[in-house]
Amino acid sequence: METPAACEIERLPKDLLVHVISLTSPGDAFRATAVSRAFHAAADSDTVWSRFLPSDLPRFAKKELPRTPPSTKKGLFRRLSDEPMLLPHKFMRMQLDKATGAKCFTLSASALQIPPYARRGNWTRVGSDFDYNKRGKRFLQAIVLGYIQGLDIRAKIQRKMFSQNTTYVAYMVFKLPDRFYGLDFPFQDALFGVVGSESVRQVCLQGYIEDGDRADEPPRKHILPSCYPTRCDMIPPVDDVHFPRKKTNGWMEVELGEFHNEEGDGEISISLIQTSSRKSSLIVWGIELRSKQQSPT
Asked: What is the rounded average pLDDT for all residues in the chain?
């Protein structure tokens, strides 16, 4: 039996409900369908989901969208948020954040700019359980960087591809080899933002961070021991250094920086640089650009 409040809602004009829901967010619209029959009908309308779908979707690779597209705007939004869509050349993919509608991107290792001297020339296959996406949209290869003096990984993407008024966080997904050294200190410099005005932070690839056992306990940072002895007393305090978080099967992701995108032209640059000390090889899968509201998957 419906409550009096629900009955009152049923009397509101549908156009009014549509207008109100369209001023919220995709996540709110999904939840609104459970309020009442009237809210369900309004929240499913094409008018609402036309507001949430980006008007500047990128061009997708061939056969990414079916010949017969979803019959509703909500269906199209679900299609673009449930799984990623490969872009032309298939080195990059896009997925909508289901909560906000922001465009999020993943750059495969093939899309990264890495100096020829750092490439070992071989690739390693990634287990199918690592990349969680469906229908063959996985990036199943990672590049192996050789034993090198410096570290230089870069990527660029046109600013106009990003959603406006959205804060993005860049993550590099990587794996340490069986034997590693030289990736603890000196720390690496990570840069992210509009070319020429990137934010800079220090990261430590040879370590990881884990949450405390209690909610009031701060996260703990760990530096992994090198396969060759090092002078641990040479490593400075790590309070302001960003450490990776563990994923699955030895893979980790490290946060490279944040960038708030507003209206503007130019390119967005992502870089990870370490110019001194010889270091072991490194296995790099790619870089993910998520809206800040989006949770890691």
From this structure: 85
